[in-house]
Every structure is written in C-alpha cells, then in structure tokens.
Amino acid sequence: MTKMTPHVALNGVSKYFAGIRALENVDFACNRGTVHAILGENGAGKSTLIKIMAGVLEPSSGEMRLDGTKVEFLSPSQATAAGIVCIFQELSLIPDLTVADNIMIERPPRRFGLIDRRAQRARAEELLARIRCEDVDPDGLVRDLSLSRRQMVEIAKAIGKKPSVLILDEATSALTSRDVQTVYDLLGDLKKENVASLFISHRMHEVDALCDTLSVFRNGMHIETFAKGERTEKEIVRLMIGRDVEAQFPPKPPRKETKPLLEVKNLEWENRLKGIDLNIGEGEILGLGGLDGQGQKELLLALFGVLRGVTGEVKFGGKPGLPGSPAAAKKAETRVALIPEDRKTEGLMLSMPIADNLLAASFADISTGPFIDPQKARTAIKRGIETLQIKSGSTSDAVSTLSGGNQQKVVIAKWLLVSPSVILMNDPTRGIDVGTKQEIYRLMRQLADDGKAILFYSSDYAELIGCSDRVSVLYDGRVVRELEGDDINEESIVSASLNIGERAA
Amino acid sequence: MNRISDANKPIVIASVFVLVILLLGTGYTLATQGTMPLFQPKYLLQQLQTGAFLGICAAGMMMVILLGHIDLSIPWTLTAAAMMASTIGGPWAIPTALAVGLLVGLFNGLGVAYLRIPSMIFTLGVDTVLRGLMVAHTGGFSPKDEATPLMLYLAKGTLLGIPVAIFVWAAVSVVIAGILAKTGFGRSVYATGTREGAAYLSGIRTRRVIIGAFVTSSLCAAIAGVLLAGYSAKAYQGMGNAFLLPSIAAVVLGGTHILGGRGRYVGTLVGVILIVLLNSVLSIMQMPEAYRQIIYGAVIIGMLLVYGRNARITS
C-alpha cells in the first residue's frame, strides 16, 4: 500500500452487450471524501459504469476492488450491503406505498418479526428532515408527490442505507431549484463524513460548483481524470467529443431558399415542450440536437398527431393545424411519416411477416373496396424492398428474423410507400451497423433532393453534422441554438446541448 | 420454413387429436356394440349440425382473441338476439337479432376502445346487464313466442341431404376467413393484436379495428342465437351459457394465441370439430357427466401445455 488505496477501484473492466462494446478496459478509481463527476456524451458508457458499480450489471471482464479487496456483486442488494448505493435516473419508488414504506423498503425495522411502523416512521422523518423535506408526510402515498419531491424521497431512501459510495445519476434533473440547493449542501455534508459521491450530470455549472474531481468518458473508454480547475470548459468539451473515425456522409447540396413545408411556432405541450419554433423547407434536412430527453421525442410525436393538448401554431404546406392522429397524418394533404425511436416496440410488429409490416401503413392504398389487391400488394412490397435494398429471404418470414439494420429499413420502407412529404425520424440509425447507417444517410439526402422535408433527431453528433442542412439544438423543451453551414460542428452542438453559451465554443 | 410449421403446428396437433378421438371412439363402439357410428356420414353430419352453433360463436370469438381481448358477453348476446327475434317474429325476426348483435358489439367495442376498460370486465358486465334485460323482458320464464319458419329451416332443414345449419356455418367461416386473410381490416386485426402501439404509429385506426372485431363477435353470437332458437323451436333462458367456454377453448386449441396477434381460422375450425367430437364420443361411451367434465377439461389443459412449449415469439 504505497500512497493511498482508492476506496473503489475498477481494473480493466469491459462490458459487452450482444457483442457491442459498452465499456472497454476501464480503469477507474474514486476516493472517500470526494465529489467525483463523470462526464461524457450519450452512450459514452457512464450508465454502464455505474450499473456495474451498483451491482445491476456484471462486467464481461475485469475486476472491482473495494478498499483493495476484490468484490463481485451479483445483485444491487449485495452492492448496497457493501456500501455502494445508487440513485438511478428512473425512479425506483413504488407509487402505491407510503413514503416511509418506500424509504425503508429493503430493510424495514422489525419487532417480533413484524414491521415496526412507529420506528419506521421515526426513521423516515429523521431522513427527510436531513434533506429539508419536513413537509413530506411519511405516511402519505408516493403517488401523491410531485416528481421533484419523489426524487427527494429517493435521495432520503439512498442516505438511509448509510452508503460509503453514493452514486447520483442525473439526480438533480427533476428537482426544483430549492431542492437542488439542498442536494448541494447534502453532498458537502457527505464529503465531510468521508463519503465518496459520484455525480453524473449534463449541467456543467453544477459540475463546476460541486465536484472536485472529474472523469471524462467517451465511446466506452475512460479518457482522463483530473482535478477541478485543471481544464477549461472548452478542453473538457474537446475531451468528451474526441476524434473518432466518422462515417461517410453524402455531400450536401448548396443551400437555397425553398418553399416552407413545415412551420412551427411556439409549440407547447405539458411541461416538456416550452415554445418550440422551427421551420423546414422542401428538400431540407433539419437536425434536432441536444441531449436525450430535452423534448425531441415529444416534438416529433406532437407533429405526428400522437399527443393531446398540444398548443401553438403549426402549418403543414401552408395549411394550419396539427393532424389528429397518425392515421390522419398519413392521409393529410401534406403527408407526414414518423420513423419512431424504438423499432422493436413502436416501429414493427416483430412476430408478423415482413410483407405485413411493409404494408401496415398503406392498406388503404393497395385495397379495392375492403379487399387487398394481391397484385398491388406484391408491387408495393417489391418497391419497398428495392428502394431500401432490404436483404431478406422470403417476405413471409417474420420481421424479427432480420438484422437490426434491415428491420429499420423495413420501418422506413413502410413509410415511403405512403409517399410522405414531411418525414420525421427519431434516431433512425440507433443500434445499426455502419454500412446500413451510410445507406440511410444516402437515402435521406436522396429524399431531400426529391423535395421532401426531413426533421430528424439523433443522439450521434457526427450524424447531425454530416446529414443536416441546419441543426436546431433543444434544451429543456426549447430551441436554444440554430446552427447553419460551417457553424454546425461538434463544439457548437455540444456546448449548445449543455447550454453553456457561446463562450465555450 | 420454421415459421410455417410454427403457425401450423397447433393445427396439425389438433387434427391428429381429432383422428385419435375418432379411432378410439370407433374402437370402443366396435368392441361394445360392433358398430362404428363415428364413420357414418349421417351421424357425422348430425354432429356437425349441432357443432354449427359453437362454430359460429367461436368464429366471432376468434376475431376478439386475435386482438388480445376477450368477449364474455357471448352467452347473453346470443340469448338476447334469439329472444328478441322470436318476440318480433315474422320477416323481421332475423334482422332484429342481427341488430341486437350489432348494438351489443358497438357497445362492447366503444367501452374497450375508447373507455379503455379491460374487455374481460366490460363484456362480463354487459353480459350481466343483458341477462337482467332479458329476465325483465320475459318475466323470467321461457318466452311463449315460437321461432319463425325461416329460423326453423335454417336450423333444422336440409339442402341436398346436408343440414342447412352447416351451410350457415360454412358461410360465416368463409366470411371470417376472407376478412382475416384478404382485407386491410383483417391484417389490421393481426397488427393491432401483435403490438397495438406499433399499429397505431403505423397509422392504423386501432380503435375502429377493436370496435369492428367486437361487432363481428356479437353478430356471430346473434346468428348462433337465431339458429339455436330455430333448432329448439323457441328461445329460452340461459340458452347461450353452454357456448362461452367451449368457444374460447376451440379458438385457443386451434392455435390462436390467447394474447393476440397469431392464429389461423382453419385452426379454429379444427378446434371446434375437436370439441364436438370429444363430446360426442364421451356421450357414446355413456360416461357420467362428472367424468366427462374432468376429461374435457384435462384435454384442454393438456393440449395447451403442448402448444405453450413451442410458441413464444413475443420479444
């Protein structure tokens, strides 16, 4: 034991999901009495890292040491027993139990083998008081609490386990500013109590204010760890982006003014969309940037007629009004198509044949009266398969037998059969191979050249840069920056995504 | 190749089981009476004639099960249609029955599609309400009105030596099989049953599909009610009670997935024939009612165990 043995140390940890690398050979350490930030783009491996530490996932290779002793967690409860507690992004509370029940759910105080309600209540009150949530009734149902309060209960539950390592994954994103301050104070206290806090946040100013050590991850690798102040924001952003082999993108044609196909003004929905303005012309590809969950998905769904209670001005091809449903969207004068985010649950009927999936949006077009015209159906299927070059055996095979890339091609082909003018795409290349990605990029450009308007969200910055004529970066339900031409680069997108202003770019 | 055998496997198994029942039953009758009624066309046609009621109910039920829903209102939809038909009488008897079916189906469909009440609860409630309405209508007794001549003919008449009821069943089968295989609505039923979210995002009007399926189911029950009232010459309380569970069993034995999305109409036909033959063999054997029920239930559970082990494509 030379200098100091780190409290938690990961040595050569890798994690693969079905052959796809999520973490590769990561060495990572954190010490007691520090607040340690983990930074990285979407998909950089941050979540995988903390899930391994918290016992949710097992590493494919490598080892983890706690105070120098090798540990292997088979479940989150083993990690908790060892003092590693994680507050996950997705809330883990049970809505129909009381606050006190939830806080003590893993180890309720017992008397004669039964839960000691009085002791449980007292302990819950004590923990809630610690995070200044005295207003939360321990006997109230979690269901009745606001999202921010729930997150605080979640934090109380975590502290109740007396952790030596506390992991906060975007734990502040749902909090009100008062609660955020409480969490800051709490982290300060924990630091004094010699607890190691790991903090994942996309808010740079939080990281700046709270953390003393920063680690940057990229593409599943640990890039660098340094103390606060050693690097400027600009350098940090560079580290996060790095230089990677990029896919090839088709050349962009020179920009020209075209007739607007889709105009959106002050679009609002619940508290997820807070006044979005954008417009797309014929033949234009508009990219939506930003971190996950800033309203991109909701925007696309709203334009497709899925959401209820959307307000604001929307014009498709000059005609005002949103479609009332996807069925209306695909039949409107300006036809709209949506390639949804999750092809397995939203894009495809997996166990149904390829042919049925291709035709699912266009039954009306290939039918004579109520009956499907087999001739028209065959022609349509052939057209879909040829346009997208879908590689399949028989079209009567279930679509689940295809590779991910070919499945996504089926989703796209299904919508092209409807001949839409506006195509909305939600992360169309997620989880598919590079070759198919490039085919999809070429297809997008070709569709734009044919006069269609494409609005697409991508979590991959390179893709946004390579494909988009313009990029609108969303942050917290608003467009915070519109980029055009040479301004579309990684620095500007990342800094706009983090909403840290022009100065860092 | 794998897929085809997967989809048809239950149908093949059920068909084999039909043969096994025929052979066992014939073996029994040969041994005890020295005859083989199960291979006499007349006997078989008679069995199919009584099977027509179940077959028509099961055809409608299949549409609903393909959506992953269920229609528990079949017994009293059938009874209500039969009673209203015989009450009205004359040339309007059958249109009245169909109108009852249409109304009940629309109501079920609206409740499930728009109010989002689980179909198991909603249709159960509708069934109870219909029973109450019919008891109020008849005072709790068997109605005195007779079935009309047309109803009698459809249920008991013969055409070219074959009972007319079998023709009605065949016509319903052709329509249902045609809808499922050859229309946009039919394909939408499969799509919605496989994954409603994906179907909705493909621009399929899933709520209309759900309503359409429930209407089909209730219409089939109404047609079965017309036939059954004709067969017994009149409508009576509880006449539909014997059809609910067998119709669900026939659909599922025929390989339709109880959670929706998969199944072929041929399978439902085989399932109905299986149940009808099983019943008739058990009655030829003069099996006491108690044992009949036990064997009947055990067969259904046993067959589902066999299917359940292969068919799980859902992700």
Q: Descriptors for this entry?
A:
heterodimer, A: 505 residues, alpha/beta, Rossmann fold, 6-stranded mixed beta sheet, 17 helices, 32% helix, 26% strand, globular, B: 315 residues, mainly alpha, ABC transporter involved in vitamin B12 uptake, BtuC, 13 helices, 1% strand, disordered C terminus
Describe the protein.
The complex is a heterodimer of chains A (505) and B (315). Chain A is 32% helix and 26% strand. With 505 residues, chain A is α/β, with parallel strands linked by helices. In chain A, strand 16 (311-316) and strand 17 form a beta hairpin. The longest helix of chain A has 16 residues, at 177-192. Chain B is mainly α and 315 residues long. Chain B has a single domain, classed as ABC transporter involved in vitamin B12 uptake, BtuC. Helices cover 74% and strands 1% of the residues of chain B. Chain B contains 13 helices and 2 strands, in the order ααααααββααααααα. Chain B has helices spanning 2-32, 41-66, 74-88, 93-113, 119-138, 149-156, 164-182, 184-194, 196-201, 206-231, 244-253, 265-284, 289-308, and strands at 158-159, 162-163. Chain B has a two-stranded antiparallel sheet with strand order 1-2. The longest helix of chain B has 31 residues, at 2-32. Chain B is globular and about 60 Å long. Mean pLDDT of chain B is 86; it is low at 310-315. Chain A binds chain B through residues 304, 306, 325-327, 329-331, 338, 340, 344-353, 356, 359-361, 363-364, 366-367, 370-372, 396-398, 400-401, 414, 418, and chain B through 3-4, 182-185, 187-188, 190-191, 194-195, 197-205, 261-262, 313-315.
